[in-house]
Design brief:
- The strands form two sheets. The protein has a seven-stranded mixed sheet. Strands 8-9-10 form a three-stranded antiparallel sheet, with no helix packed on it.
- The protein has 152 residues and is α/β, with parallel strands linked by helices.
- The longest helix has 6 residues.
- The chain has six helices and ten strands.
Length: 152
């Protein structure tokens, strides 16, 4: 794989189906979104051995597909509180009539994860996340999903 684009000494972009942000502190990392190309081998090549947090901008599968492997390794998941049910109570969504019959004219649509993703922390507009001396603000940015957030 070609070298990953580095924006600053601690900030790297990981191109994939969804670009993942990687904030690094030594061998530890915080991810912003996590598609299924963000594997332990890929991060090890960058010197990352442990992911502490994954900050999801939205519930959609493309943004969360790689999180399962990291949760098994001890990472904690953060996501928009307004979308908590789409992360955690996926059985209710997929068991609903409209979801089973593919009536996708509504949010959340067909991109709800198939397996639950438990949020260690649900965030909302104006909150701050602190990690390794870095502060990231949470900004409500509805668009692809009604409850989407961005981190700055």
């Amino acid at each position: 794989m070609a070298s990953e684009p580095t924006l600053a000494p601690q900030l790297t972009l990981l191109p994939g189906a969804v670009t993942t942000g990687l904030i690094r502190c030594g061998e530890r990392a915080l991810l912003i979104d996590c598609d299924d190309t963000v594997t332990p081998d890929r991060l090890a090549a960058l010197g990352v051995r442990h992911v502490d947090w994954i900050l999801c901008t939205q519930y959609r599968r493309g943004n969360t597909a790689g999180a399962y492997a990291w949760l098994e390794r001890g990472a904690q998941l953060v996501g928009p509180g307004a979308e908590r049910a789409w992360f955690e109570d996926v059985a209710a969504y997929w068991g609903a009539w409209g979801s089973r019959w593919h009536l996708y004219t509504h949010q959340p649509g067909p991109q709800v994860p198939v397996q639950p993703l438990p949020l260690a922390r649900a965030v909302a507009d104006g909150e701050t996340i602190r990690w390794q001396g870095i502060e990231l603000g949470v900004l409500a940015t509805p668009g692809m999903t009604d409850g989407a957030v961005s981190y700055h």
